[in-house]
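Figure 3 (text version): structure tokens given as input.
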């Protein structure tokens, strides 16, 4: 059923865009077969590795598949718009507008161009995004504290060792106080991805590098990956917390397992356990891969929640659907009660749909400030 659903846009393109073109039948048949092959990218991925989430093809082929698959999806959306307009024209006096052949060529060219741009935006090493978050009662020692949020790296054949090495180099050059990685670091088994994640050992910050699992960790040897992250020098926050200190001042850094954990027999998402024993009246920064449970975190007194998972919605327009699946949270900062929720667009992207049109990837440097404290008063 999964692969049939992804084949539907292809069938629509073949019947409504390709077949009306004045081409020889043999040429149209060949193009239709190529489109069908491209539309079944996820089937070929599953056959290559046993999972639709980890295509084990050369990087160039994965880029080509994403471009072709993206062009099909975009072209189907464009043609549907034209078909609706043509159908509506029949309701007008003297209506019955026919779609010119030239328009089919134009929309196909535009879809291929946009898909190329979307893939390029997806696979690049992200630019820096600076975000300031004000926290009430933030201790003076943490005013101006900086942390870097990485999330959804999806290290894979598409985001390989060289890409990870460049992300680490850019991250370390920022000189932040803390690095946090909010899940979905990998797509693939430990045996397949060992070299790709190796550069993460080089991440460093004075207060360390801390990581939580995302939903994709549960697709691939969860326990082995958590041990491996720890072996790379990252602190793993599975329903627990640690204290960040600046002299006598402190901030709680807590992390939870993913909301999907219960489906895999692993320790379930447990905010109560993560905050158990945390000192009172100390600001809490929570790492939670998915943003949709932010209301509960706010009710527990969390000051700042950092999440990913949504990839920012990937494509303008599609982000509205992604938001609906995540309680309205999809990209950027939200005020949730007295808490700030920041939903990161992602450092990388799932290689099964590596397309970005609108929501950009990001290396996110977050500066903490005391709420209402005037910089001029210093």
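Below: residues designed for each position.
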């Amino acid at each position: 059923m999964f692969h049939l659903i992804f084949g539907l846009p292809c069938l629509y393109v073949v019947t409504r865009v390709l077949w009306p073109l004045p081409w020889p039948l043999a040429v149209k048949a060949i193009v239709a077969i190529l489109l069908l092959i491209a539309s079944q990218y996820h089937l070929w991925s599953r056959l290559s590795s046993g999972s639709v989430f980890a295509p084990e093809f050369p990087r160039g082929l994965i880029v080509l598949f994403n471009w072709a698959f993206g062009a099909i999806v975009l072209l189907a959306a464009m043609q549907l718009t034209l078909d609706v307009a043509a159908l509506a024209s029949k309701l007008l006096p003297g209506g019955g507008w026919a779609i010119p052949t030239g328009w089919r060529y134009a929309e196909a060219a535009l879809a291929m161009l946009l898909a190329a741009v979307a893939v390029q935006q997806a696979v690049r090493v992200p630019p820096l995004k600076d975000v300031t978050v004000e926290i009430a009662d933030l201790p003076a020692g943490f005013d101006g504290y900086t942390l870097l949020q990485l999330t959804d790296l999806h290290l894979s054949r598409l985001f390989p060792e060289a890409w990870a090495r460049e992300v680490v180099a850019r991250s370390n050059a920022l000189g932040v106080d803390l690095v946090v990685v909010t899940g979905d670091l990998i797509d693939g088994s430990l045996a397949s991805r060992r070299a790709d994640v190796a550069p993460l050992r080089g991440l460093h910050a004075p207060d360390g590098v801390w990581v939580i699992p995302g939903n994709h960790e549960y697709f691939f040897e969860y326990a082995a990956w958590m041990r491996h992250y720890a072996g790379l020098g990252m602190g793993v926050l599975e329903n627990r917390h640690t204290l960040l200190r600046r002299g006598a001042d402190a901030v709680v850094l807590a992390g939870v397992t993913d909301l999907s954990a219960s489906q895999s027999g692993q320790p379930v998402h447990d905010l109560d356990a993560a905050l158990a024993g945390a000192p009172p009246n100390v600001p809490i920064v929570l790492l939670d891969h998915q943003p949709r449970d932010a209301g509960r975190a706010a009710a527990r007194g969390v000051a700042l929640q950092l999440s990913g998972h949504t990839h920012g919605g990937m494509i303008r327009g599609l982000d509205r659907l992604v938001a609906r699946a995540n309680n309205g949270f999809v990209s950027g900062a939200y005020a949730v009660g007295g808490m700030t929720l920041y939903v990161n667009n992602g450092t990388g992207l799932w290689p099964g749909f590596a397309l970005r049109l609108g929501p950009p990837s990001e290396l996110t440097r977050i500066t903490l400030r005391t709420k209402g404290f005037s910089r001029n008063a210093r």
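Residues 374-378 have pLDDT under 50 and may be disordered.
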